[in-house]
UniProtKB/TrEMBL annotation:
Keywords linked to the UniProt accession: Disulfide bond, Repeat, Signal
Listed Pfam families: fn3 (PF00041), I-set (PF07679), ig (PF00047), Ig_3 (PF13927)
InterPro entries: FN3_dom, FN3_sf, Ig-like_dom, Ig-like_dom_sf, Ig-like_fold, Ig_I-set, Ig_sub, Ig_sub2
Signal peptide positions (record): 1-18
Organism for this UniProt entry: Schistosoma mekongi (Parasitic worm)
Name of the protein this chain belongs to: Uncharacterized protein
Boundaries of every Ig-like domain copy: 4-121, 140-227, 232-326, 346-449, 459-558
SUPFAM superfamilies to which the protein is assigned, alphabetical: Fibronectin type III, Immunoglobulin
Amino acid sequence: MKFPLIILLIIYVFNVCGINIKEADVDGNYYVQWEGNLALTCSQNTPSFEKANINWFLPSQPNKPVGYGNKAYVYRQDQVNSIVLVLIVRSVTRDDSGIYTCRTGRQEGNQFIEMDRKSVNVVVRKSIMATNCPRDQWIPVSTEATNCMTNVTDCEDVTAMVQCTILAFPAPTIHWRFKGVQLTTGAKYIITTTGVTILNPTHEDSGIYTVIARQPQQTAVFDLRVSGFSRPRITSGPSIIKTHNSTFVSGREAYLQCLASGQPPPTIHWYHERDPQTELQTVNPRRFSVNTNRHVGLLRISEVIYPKDSGTYICRAVVPVSATYSGSTLATITEAKIFIEVTLPPMLIPLTTMHSYVELGSTATVQCRVRATTPLELYFKRFNSSLPYKDGVQPNDKRIRVWKEIDINDPLNHDLFLKIENTTLDDTWNYSCHAINQGNSSWWNTTIQVMQTPQMLIPSELITENEQSKLRFGWRYKGTNLTCISRGMPHPSWTWYRRGEQILNGQNLTFVIISYDYWDHSQSWLQITPCLYTEHFIYDDYVCKATNIKGTNESTVSFRRSSVPGQPTLESYSVSQSTLFLNVSPPIHTGGMPILTYELTYRAFGGPEGWYGPVTYPLDASKTYAKPKFELTGLLGNTNYQLKLFARSIVGQGTPYSFSVTTSPSTRPGPVEVIHSSTAIYPYGHIVNWIPPMSGGSPIQGYRIRIRSIDNDLDLISMIENVSPSSSWKVYTPSFNNPYVDYYHLAPLKPDQTYQLIVEAYNRHGYSLDGIAIQQYGYLNRTPTSTPQLQQIFPGERLNYQNLKRSTNAVNLLMNFKQPDLIPIWYLFKTPPADELDPPPLMSSLTSSLYKSCQSVILVGIHTFLVYIFY
């Protein structure tokens, strides 16, 4: 008799201990302003005898109750027969959005019994605000037409920026309007988050631009007044003219020319880097004369003086427009520079003292002689180094000294010396002597060799895949190279040892020794190939020894067994209704062996317990040019999938990287891409091949093929012309017993006839082209959407339906345009002319009643026979 009472009591306690979040709306959401304070109240109706705990949990810490902190804390406001717990979060940002959970329960011994929980979805908002958005703006515009097709050097892209940055959260929808028309990114405008970039602006682009920013709760409108003027442009030069070999020669006259264009017409001014603010004709009118006409722009120097006339000359084109807005100098002034140096090319004279062979610790001296006119830059540089040696003792190496000497008998001969005291092994190298002036630059190698005991090069930290690493990994039946490098002349002989025992070369396939001498160092390789019977001792430390007449040196290399790789790095991914695209990088820890492939297994939440896969991908599958792509197809729409990503090496499958995705809601299939041929296979039939489209997240149930004849000539059809059908649509529905069906035979057709072809797939949501106006030629995105938009490419240009490859004309190249993500909605093909014979009969002329009763069966049989014959 007591059991029912106990059950009723438990039910009563459960009901009265329910919790409630005061701020949540009917949808379980709560909205808070950006950088405001969040306050959430959780109340629990609890009888006086009930001992229950109540806690808040943040989205970022769903398993840790909120205590007291600088960012978030809780406090209680208990009332009669209820517990009230208030959560405060200060200065919220977008990172604070998410699910906040209030949970209640009681502690029974070591076990926590959860009694109830409630959650609220907190959404952080930020009001719309415009920054960097001046109401009056100026843009440079172009008023002169430039023929970019005939003179590429005179063509320069002109752009202008109307600035306005909108700040809000959630991110608002932003529209730009000009003269009542909404602007979109295209051939004229580029819409960005900071404003509108106008391509090749003209005075027609001046006016009022309107920015409209919309959020679900508010809308903001900003009007910007934009005015324009043209920017000057250097159309030619600056360049040297009327001078032999385009060089300045001391004592002769020289000419520099610079041409410009703009509106209003600019004037040309010449400056020298010595005083970039004073025009040259005012500095010395007798030596410098300038024609400021923009069509002439000529600077004449009556007599070049060395070295005074060397330096940078500045051609500045100035449009007489006042500084009306910030940055106007860039729009009213354009300049170009040219560096001039009066000089003759140098000549290097080889000497026997250009090479030096010395003992370790002695002094090496090399000499370089150059015959040239000044100005001349003469310096030594260590080969392959980016920094030259300075004159005198080097500040970073006091052993090295460089100095110059002039030949007393011939001042055109310049001697450059390099001296190294207390030579070391690192001093063995080529030292290049450089002589540079405007006429030419030349260099010649000098050599220093230091005789020394072999010095083993210990590389810095290298990845284990690099053969120069001192830690190498191997695997069964895979050869691995261990290497040592020695510097020191003369070149040494090499021996390898394991645990004090010398390894002999060529006795078996386990060990192979190869040595090679370079000009400044020597290198030896020990190739180890483990097998089943040597794995118990092969992984060990190995010693290489280098010996020459000066002595012996050695180094140790460790050889270890490889392991499986670590987790690969998932850089990013994108998911549609049926396809998942991945961007994957190799794992940080490879286990010692190169990564061979990636493997992917997956399963749907709530589906079968087993995993599908693994699906194998090459290492470059994430690249844009990769085939196959790193993608997973055939997924169902609006479904949660759990995935595991592995890296595989020769050792085996590595540690998995687990993640989950949710596909978009399913929709109709994507457009079907036909592997198109403009000519039918024979006069009375045609085989249509296509690529199975994206399913839209729902299994494809079949295909529909529509075909009709048209009166237009295939070579004369353009986008602005209407297709003139000469027959109604004929519909074919191929038998769909294979989800990978990708062809169909169309018959009978008429010879020498142009046909319009449409291939669609359908699933439970409908056909690929439902709602699309097929009267116009256009493209649909390969990825299906609930509201597909027809896109037209190159409006007004003639379309080439034949995909001709022999055409090289620029206009035909535009007509052959094909974007990988856009699929044409229909295709045209033409049947070839027939010979004098009649078309083959599709069926005999039987008139018996038996034939008439079996007519449909014979049609199907004849059609199948034709498919077999012509395919």
